[in-house]
Design goal:
Blueprint lengths: L1 E2 L10 H9 L11 H13 L4 E5 L2 H12 L5 E5 L3 H4 L4 H6 L2 E5 L9 H7 L10 E7 L12 H13 L4 E4 L3 H8 L3 H4 L5 E5 L10 E5 L1 H13 L8 H10 L6 H16 L5 E2 L6 E5 L7 H11 L1 E2 L1 E4 L2 E5 L6 H18 L1
Parallel strand pairs: 1-11, 3-4, 3-5, 5-6, 6-7
Antiparallel strand pairs: 2-8, 7-8, 9-10, 10-13, 12-13
Helix pairs in contact: 1-11, 2-11, 3-10, 6-7, 12-14, 13-14
Bound molecules: pyridoxal-5'-phosphate.
């Protein structure tokens, strides 16, 4: 079975398993795990921030960031299809007593400076005040689109002019950087904090990074503890995480494989395919007269798995456990699946 449900499904290779076994460890809640400390330093350098915090998941990284930037009862400005509002169980409301105001970021999922200014709410006797703007790059729900750094800068500057901090959900920010052929730190230049996942295209078994200023990370560390994310001998998982940081350039292979997959799928009668910019391929099944879940069931029977994204949209994700032949094979399976639907 070819598993293209997500880039999170990769299994650690031998080097990562060795890094786990051989990791020098200590109690990270006391700040004494040398492997975690090194990972945090290296990860902060990668995104050009003063400091970083190792967290168990991207969701925790985002939710800790949101909590750290805001005060109870404020509003958070976020894009309406963004992960932080769509796929995190309403965490901003549940964990941080915040209200969300969504902006429609259009096809690329990034609000304009004008939208940020219009969405901003000044605190007064009646209104809660805006406490944070969140952005997402690459934008998952929009099909892994790689937003240009200038557009992130522009939205961030608009927020800063209003005195609002900016958090970037950069679960796949390294994919965005590779797609734009710039260093990762260029993608995060104007934001105040960034979360990125080690456990997606970079291939680590577990973990994400939340980076920002020293002062921000010190407060985030307390909130990580509050949310139950204080870990002990975490070097065991941070060891492979350090190796994951070396895999940024390798993401170009996933992007190339996604392009090949998209081209092949576009040749299948009834499927329409969005041009991939990174490692995510969105396939619309409307032309087959069937919904995405029926198409995906047939795909799984044929030999390839994807996920349903919308009524008529399926997502396939390339990653380091699939190569060029695998994606060509995947497209053949999808073609067989469409035939079976008739
Ligand atoms: C995967 C993802 C997350 C959450 O990461 P988990 O480790 O699965 O909690 C957050 N934001 C985006 C855009 C993602 O794709």
């Amino acid at each position: 079975m070819l598993d293209l449900r997500s880039d999170t499904v990769t299994k650690p290779d031998d080097a990562m398993r060795e890094a786990s076994r051989d990791a020098e460890v200590g109690d990270d809640v006391y700040g004494e795990d040398p492997t975690v400390n090194r990972l945090e330093d290296e990860a902060a350098d990668l995104v050009g921030m003063e400091d970083a915090l190792y967290v168990p998941s991207g969701t925790m990284g985002n939710q800790v960031a949101v909590r750290t930037h805001t005060e109870r009862g404020q509003e958070v400005l976020t894009e309406r299809e963004s992960h932080v509002v769509k796929w995190e169980l309403g965490g901003m409301a549940q964990l941080s007593t915040l209200q969300v105001r969504t902006l429609d970021g259009g096809e690329r999922g990034v609000p304009t400076p004008e939208q940020v200014r219009e969405g901003h709410v000044e605190e007064d006797l009646h209104r809660p005040g805006t406490g944070l703007l969140t952005l997402e790059n690459t934008h998952n729900s929009k099909g892994g689109v790689a937003i240009a750094p200038e557009r992130i800068d522009a939205a961030a500057e608009a927020a800063h002019d209003l005195g609002i901090p900016v958090h970037l959900d950069g679960a796949r920010v390294c994919n965005a950087a590779v797609a734009h052929d710039v260093p990762v730190e260029r993608m995060t230049e104007r934001v105040d904090s960034v979360m990125f996942c080690l456990s997606k295209g970079l291939g680590a078994p577990v973990g994400s990074i939340l980076a920002g200023s020293e002062e921000f990370v010190a407060r985030a560390r307390r909130n990580r503890k509050l949310f139950g994310g204080g870990m002990r001998q975490a070097g065991i998982i941070a060891g492979p995480g350090r190796l994951a940081l070396d895999n940024v350039e390798r993401l170009a292979d996933d992007h190339e494989n996604a392009r090949v997959l998209a081209e092949e799928l576009a040749g299948v009668e009834g499927l329409s395919v969005q041009d991939p910019e990174t490692n995510i391929v969105l396939v619309n099944t409307e032309g087959t007269g069937r919904e995405a879940d029926e198409f995906l069931d047939a795909c799984a029977e044929a030999g390839v798995q994807g996920t349903q994204f919308d009524t008529h949209v399926a997502r396939f994700c390339t990653h380091w456990d699939v190569n060029r032949e695998d994606v060509e094979q995947a497209a053949e399976y999808a073609s067989e699946a469409v035939e079976r639907l008739d």
